[in-house]
Specification:
Radius of gyration: 17 Å
Mean pLDDT: 87
Helix content: 40-55%
Distance between the termini: 55 Å
Bound molecules: zinc ion
Number of strands: 4
Order of helices and strands: HHEEHEHEHHH
Shape: globular
Structural class: mainly alpha
Largest sheet: 2 strands, antiparallel
Number of helices: 7
Low-confidence stretches: none
């Protein structure tokens, strides 16, 4: 009797949520990891290669689709590269992150990590990660179609070359709209 694990309804809720929304969960874990970090000297960006690199490690194989690991160091560099400002509008404000002298921003993978197998290369690259304020980040995930399109096109057009380079092929705005179901 003592060995029976005590499984609360909350546990079941969390467990099944993790199973159904592995990508959402992986992004939440990434945010948590970034919050636990202390400030580290921003690593040099000079050697950032635009060449495609192999798909990373899988963090969750229990579902029909693989979920690829988000390396927090890559996101940290992407936020530093943006100067810890929102890449939709640098005047968007936020609060100071704990253990840090930087504004709190959230990393967003423009080409969704869930499309890793579709491209066959790593999508966890600085070039694919944008620094967004919480409001813009939520809007790109949960906003109205026209607004989501506007945000995506602004981000994509600001880095089109780099994104095509890391994918190893051309990609159009329409293709990205499809990934977000806003075509
Ligand atoms: Zn996101
Ligand atoms: Zn913003």
């Amino acid at each position: 009797m003592e060995d029976t694990p005590y499984l609360t309804p909350i546990f079941y809720q969390k467990f099944f949520h993790t199973q159904i929304h592995p990508e959402f969960t992986a992004d939440q874990i990434l945010l948590e990891q970034l919050s636990k970090d202390n400030d580290t000297p921003d690593e040099l960006m000079a050697n950032l290669s635009n060449k495609p690199i192999p798909k990373g490690l899988v963090s969750n194989r229990s579902c029909s689709k693989d979920t690829y690991l988000r390396d927090p160091a890559v996101s940290r560099r992407a936020l530093a590269r943006a100067g810890h400002r929102c890449e939709i509008d640098t005047s968007h404000t936020s609060f100071l992150r704990k253990n840090s002298s930087h504004l709190y921003m959230e990393p967003h993978h423009l080409i969704p990590m869930a499309k890793t197998d579709h491209f066959g290369v790593s999508l966890n690259r600085e070039q694919n990660i944008f620094s967004l304020c919480s409001n813009c980040h939520n809007q790109i995930h949960y906003g109205k179609k026209e607004d989501v399109q506007r945000l995506i096109s602004k981000l994509f057009l600001s880095r089109e070359q780099e994104i095509c380079s890391i994918l190893g092929r051309k990609i159009t705005l329409e293709e990205i709209y499809q990934f977000y179901n806003v075509l």
